Every structure is written in structure tokens, then in C-alpha cells.
């Protein structure tokens, strides 16, 4: 021992454990007898550890003081004792009825105690592992010190190294053994879990087998009942089967025939479906080609209308007076061409005609006459203008129509009330389609006149009309004089027998009775006539009320026309501000253009512009109000500003102002 101690004095640092620190541990050296006792005690504890699973004991050769603690009473025993106490006092029914809340609280406490118990078990396992490691470290330190002090004195160095290696191998094997023991415990735990799962599965399998067995028994019972029923049925239907055998054969033959027919119909249906698909493809191709040809035809027709218009203007310019008395052949050809161009279509067209003109409808969609009947020169200009309008309409049709946007908007307002919005305003400024204009005009009028209509009694218009017809009305004479002079170029007001004349009379009489301060003013008849093209009598009456009593100033249509004159002063100021060059040009040649614009404001451009532009102006006017009149008046002058500035005398300027608005044909400038 002394020799081993002397040899291993210098290698104590190599035996440091993982818990080694710079502080020195002070441990008392055990006597040889104590060491042998500790070795024997360790062997006994190892045997005890192998015999009992999951139990660990302290392997220290010396005794650590344990902290005494009070043992906890199991929660199940507490619940059991509580139940026993309650059962001794009262019956189970009374206990459950009186202590339902206490039972739920105890269950919650039981769950929380179980969770705490699981946590404590985990802490106990970790503490046991830590104690085991500390035991190993202390044992190794004790052995090192013992051998270093007693056994290693006088031992050669090479043997000491071998001894160190053996000790290291023993420690490594002990560590591996401990790891394997831990793995063994974990595997045993897994085996237990798997056995539990196998037991559960066996229970489920047993339950399923019992269920299947019960079902088999039910099936057997039902099969026995079915066999008994079949036997009874067979005995009863034996006689019937013999009599129905022949009928069954016929039915089978009929069934075979129907199956054959069905198969034939299926084959025929497949063939017809194939034919239908092929015909559908051919129809789509034909429709596509038709659309292409229609687009080309429309384009060519528009170009043809433009060419015919230019041709008519050229013929008019060529037909100039000649001083010579002789009739030249060229003049005869021009005269013949003019006659052919202005001649209406008849069933007997002369074959020798030099020119076959493009057909122009006598009236447009609003009922206005396209070509006058009196003056030949005016007829030529009017027909040229009509051809230009047709060319523009054909060009517009080739573009994406605004009708699709209107259809989408109206479809979105099917289940809700129409309201003012930016989208609707933009659509109206682009123009309301002909098929929707009646509905939209009525909505616009009701939008502005709602407070007036709500204050009137039902049948208000009919009452006014009845009073005007029965009693003397001072305005009725002037109304009768102006009826046929309202829109003589419109087929709805061209003769006394027209339906529009009677409607116009009724509306003007009813309004004169409603508003005796105005009674009747020239210009109201044209406003009503335009409204009646799309509205019924009563709606046209309220449209007139909207224009006179809501939109325009109070004295706009009185005898003094004071409001109209004020608007002309305002328009002059706008012209000087927005179009200063044109205003200065009018001032230079002393041209009073308000003589022309006064009628624009009074009747809202009726008989001043072509019908397409007129109704687009009215669309915006009925929605936005009188500011639209100022905007369009400025736009008309701006559109023709350069041409007006080229005129250098007052007569030519004034003459041009009288008809220049009729030369503006493209309604797209309005938008």
C-alpha cells in the first residue's frame, strides 16, 4: 500500500471527475475495516437492486443525513374517506343531489393533484439520477485516495499505468452497464405500454367479435323467417305461376323488343349528337364570317355615304349659271345627276339613270324629317347632311357601344333603388340609349320634382286639365295658334290629326292653369314637344314644371323674360373669360351674338342642333340642371372658333351664326 501511494501521488489530477472544481474536498480517510464493510454493503445493495425493479438505494459508504418529511396521504384515499363519511350520514341519492358541486370541485382537485404527482415523479427520477452520479464520483474519489495512500507505494511505474488503464476500462464498462440498464428499463416500459395497447386491441377485437356474432344470429333468424315466407309464398303462388307463365313469356319477348329499340335509339342519338356538334361548329364559323363581312360592309357603307355627300356638294358647285345661251352637254349630265340624286326610290327605276343614290330614310328615329320637300338647294344640303350623319352612325356602331355599360348598370340596380353617383353621371354624359331614355328621363324628373309631387293629391294633372277645358282660359287661344308651329318637321306634330298635337295641347293647358303668372310663353310648346317624344302626358307635364319652376329663374318665361336676359349677360361674361379671342372678334365687328344664343337658352337648343346632339344635351340637362346649357353653348362656339375668326365682316359672321350649329354632325364631341 505504501509503494502504490508513492507511485500515484503525482497522477491525482488525472482522476478528476466531471464534477471537479478548483476547491479541494476534505474527506476523512476510511480505515481498512470500514472500506471492507462498505464493499460488502455495496455488494448486498447491488443484489437487492437486481431483485427489486424501479428501486434505488444510496451506495455511499458513509451516511448522509436525510431531511425528514411528512408523508402525503393519497388523494384516492381522501376521496374514499370522504365518500365513506358522506355515505354514513345520508343515502347515495341524497349525497349526489346535495353535493353535486362538491363532487365537481373534488374531481378538479383530483386532476390537479395527479398533475402535481406526475411532476414530482419526474423530479424524483432526475434527483435519483443526480444522486447516482454523485455516488459514482465519490466512490471513484475514495478509491483513488485509498489506493494512492495505501496500495501504490513501491509499485513500478509501468504497473501503475496498467492499473490506471484497467481502472478507466472498469469505469467505462460501469458507465456502459448503467446506460444499458437505463435502456433496458425504457424498453421494459415500452413493452408494458405495448402490452397495454395489445390488451386494449384484444378488448376491441372481442367486442367486435361479439357484435359480429350478434349480427350473425340476427341474420340467421331473418334467413329462417325469409325461408319460411318463401315456402308459404311458393305454396300459395304455385297455382298462380302456372297461369302466369304464358304472360311472363310475352312480357319477356316485349322486354327484349324494347331493349332492341332502346339500343337502336342510343345509336341513333349518338349519331345525331355528332351531327349536331358538327353543325354547331359550322354555324359558329359561319357567324364569325358573317360578322367579319358585316363589319366590312358597314365600313364600306360609311365610306360610300361620305363619298355621296361629297359628290352632291360637288354637283351643287358645278351647277353654276353660264352666260352662254347654249346648253352644254356637261350641264345636261350634271342636271340629270342631280335629278337622280334627289329622286325618291320607286318600283320602276329608269335604267338610263346616271347615278343610283344611297337610300336615306325620310324620318329619323325621333320622327324628324331628314330631307325638306320645298327648296331644291336645301334638299341637296339636307340629304348631304343626312348621309354624313349615317356615315357617323355606322362608324359608331363599329366601335364598342355604350349600350353594354348601360345594360350592366341597369342590371345592377334591379334589386335596389337608383341613386345619384359618379358612374351614372358619366354614363348620362355619354348619352342615354334610345331604348332606355324614357325610363331615365322619368327618373330624372321625379328626382327633382319629388317634393312638389308629394304635396299634391292623386289625380292632380287630370284635375288641372279638366278645369282648363271646362273654364275659360286666357292662354288657350295662343296655345292653339302655336300648336302646328311647334315642330313642323316632326311627323308627330306635322298635322292637326296627329296624336302628339292633342297631348301637347293637354299639357300646355294644364300647366297654364297651374301657373297663371306665366300662363303660356312661346318656347314652352317646344319644351313639351321634346318631352312628349319619350314621356307620357302627366310625366311631360311634370318635366315642364321641373324646367320652369325648379331649373330656371322665376322670371325666365314671364312676359318680361327678365331671367333670360340675365342669363345672356352671364353668358357674355363667360365668353370673355373662356373664349377671349372670339369675344374680341365679335366686339370688333359689333356682332351681338346673344340674339342667336337667346333662343338656345329659352328652348334648350331645340331646332338649333341636329337631333342626335339635341337629345344628348337634354340627357345631361335633365340630370344636372341649367349649368349644362352654358357649357354646351361655350362648347359650340369653341368647336367652330377658328372658322368664325376667319370671317371678316359682320354680315357674314351673323349669317354664319344662324346656321353653323346645324353643320356640327358628330355627336361624339358632346361627351
From TrEMBL:
GO annotations of cellular component type: cytoplasmic vesicle; cytosol
Keyword Coiled coil attached: yes
Every Rab-GAP TBC domain range: 431-625
SMART domains referenced in this protein's UniProt entry, alphabetically: TBC (SM00164)
InterPro entries: Rab-GAP-TBC_dom, Rab-GAP_TBC_sf, Rab_GAP_TBC_domain
Region (Disordered): 66-99
Entry keywords, A to Z: Coiled coil, GTPase activation
Gene Ontology molecular function terms on file: GTPase activator activity; small GTPase binding
PROSITE patterns: TBC_RABGAP
Coiled-coil zones: 103-137, 163-211, 248-303
Protein name: TBD2B protein
Amino acid at each position: 500500500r505504501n509503494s502504490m501511494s508513492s507511485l500515484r501521488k503525482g497522477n491525482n489530477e488525472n482522476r478528476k471527475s466531471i464534477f471537479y472544481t478548483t476547491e479541494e474536498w476534505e474527506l476523512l480517510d476510511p480505515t481498512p475495516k470500514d472500506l471492507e464493510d462498505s464493499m460488502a454493503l455495496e455488494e448486498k445493495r447491488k443484489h437487492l437492486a437486481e431483485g427489486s425493479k424501479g428501486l434505488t438505494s444510496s451506495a455511499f459508504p458513509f451516511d448522509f443525513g436525510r431531511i425528514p418529511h411528512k408523508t402525503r396521504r393519497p388523494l384516492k384515499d381522501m376521496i374514499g374517506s370522504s365518500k365513506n363519511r358522506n355515505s354514513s350520514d345520508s343515502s347515495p341519492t341524497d349525497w349526489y343531489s346535495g353535493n353535486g358541486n362538491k363532487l365537481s370541485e373534488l374531481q378538479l382537485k383530483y386532476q390537479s393533484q395527479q398533475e402535481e404527482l406526475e411532476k414530482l415523479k419526474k423530479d424524483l427520477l432526475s434527483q435519483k439520477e443526480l444522486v447516482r452520479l454523485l455516488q459514482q464520483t465519490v466512490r471513484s474519489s475514495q478509491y483513488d485516495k485509498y489506493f494512492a495512500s495505501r496500495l501504490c507505494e513501491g509499485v513500478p511505474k509501468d504497473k501503475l499505468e496498467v492499473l490506471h488503464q484497467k481502472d478507466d476500462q472498469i469505469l467505462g464498462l460501469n458507465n456502459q452497464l448503467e446506460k444499458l440498464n437505463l435502456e433496458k428499463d425504457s424498453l421494459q416500459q415500452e413493452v408494458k405500454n405495448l402490452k397495454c395497447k395489445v390488451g386494449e386491441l384484444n378488448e376491441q377485437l372481442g367486442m367486435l367479435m361479439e357484435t359480429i356474432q350478434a349480427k350473425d344470429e340476427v341474420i340467421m333468424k331473418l334467413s329462417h323467417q325469409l325461408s319460411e315466407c318463401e315456402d308459404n309464398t311458393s305454396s300459395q303462388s304455385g297455382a298462380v305461376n302456372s297461369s302466369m307463365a304464358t304472360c311472363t313469356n310475352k312480357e319477356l319477348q316485349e322486354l327484349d323488343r324494347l331493349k332492341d329499340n332502346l339500343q337502336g335509339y342510343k345509336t341513333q342519338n349518338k349519331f345525331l349528337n355528332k351531327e349536331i356538334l358538327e353543325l354547331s361548329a359550322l354555324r359558329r364559323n359561319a357567324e364569325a364570317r358573317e360578322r367579319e363581312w358585316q363589319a366590312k360592309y358597314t365600313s364600306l357603307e360609311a365610306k360610300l355615304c361620305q363619298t355621296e355627300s361629297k359628290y352632291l356638294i360637288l354637283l351643287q358647285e358645278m351647277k353654276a349659271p353660264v352666260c352662254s345661251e347654249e346648253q352644254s352637254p356637261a350641264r345636261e349630265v350634271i342636271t340629270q345627276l342631280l335629278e337622280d340624286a334627289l329622286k325618291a326610290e320607286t318600283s320602276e327605276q329608269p335604267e338610263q339613270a346616271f347615278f343610283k343614290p344611297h337610300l336615306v330614310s325620310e324620318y329619323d328615329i325621333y320622327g324628324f324629317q331628314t330631307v325638306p320637300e320645298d327648296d331644291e338647294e336645301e334638299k341637296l344640303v339636307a340629304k348631304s347632311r343626312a348621309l354624313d350623319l349615317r356615315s357617323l352612325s355606322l362608324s359608331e356602331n363599329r366601335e364598342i357601344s355604350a349600350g353594354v355599360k348601360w345594360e350592366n348598370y341597369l342590371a345592377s340596380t334591379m334589386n335596389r333603388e337608383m341613386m345619384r353617383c359618379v358612374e351614372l353621371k358619366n354614363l348620362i354624359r355619354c348619352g342615354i340609349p334610345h331604348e332606355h331614355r324614357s325610363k331615365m328621363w322619368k327618373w330624372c324628373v321625379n328626382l327633382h320634382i319629388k317634393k312638389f309631387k308629394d304635396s299634391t293629391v292623386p289625380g292632380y294633372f287630370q284635375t288641372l286639365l279638366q278645369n282648363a277645358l271646362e273654364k275659360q282660359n286666357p292662354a288657350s287661344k295662343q296655345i292653339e295658334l302655336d300648336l302646328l308651329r311647334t315642330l313642323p318637321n316632326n311627323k308627330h306634330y306635322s298635322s292637326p290629326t296627329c296624336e302628339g298635337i292633342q297631348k301637347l295641347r293637354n299639357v300646355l293647358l294644364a300647366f297654364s292653369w297651374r301657373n297663371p303668372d306665366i300662363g303660356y310663353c312661346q318656347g314652352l310648346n317646344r319644351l313639351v314637344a321634346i318631352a312628349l317624344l319619350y314621356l307620357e302626358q302627366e310625366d311631360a307635364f311634370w318635366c315642364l314644371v321641373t324646367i320652369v319652376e325648379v331649373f330656371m329663374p322665376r322670371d325666365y318665361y314671364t312676359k318680361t323674360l327678365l331671367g333670360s336676359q340675365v342669363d345672356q349677360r352671364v353668358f357674355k361674361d363667360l365668353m370673355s373669360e373662356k373664349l377671349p379671342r372670339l369675344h374680341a372678334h365679335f366686339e370688333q365687328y359689333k356682332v351681338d351674338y346673344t340674339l342667336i344664343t337667346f333662343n338656345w337658352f329659352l328652348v334648350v337648343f331645340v331646332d338649333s342642333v341636329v337631333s342626335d346632339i339635341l337629345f344628348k344635351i337634354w340627357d345631361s340637362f335633365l340630370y344636372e340642371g341649367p349649368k349644362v346649357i352654358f357649357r354646351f353653348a361655350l362648347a359650340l362656339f369653341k368647336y367652330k372658333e377658328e372658322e368664325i375668326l376667319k370671317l371678316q365682316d359682320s354680315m357674314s359672321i351673323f349669317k354664319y351664326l344662324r346656321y353653323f350649329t346645324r353643320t356640327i354632325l358628330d355627336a361624339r364631341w358632346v361627351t
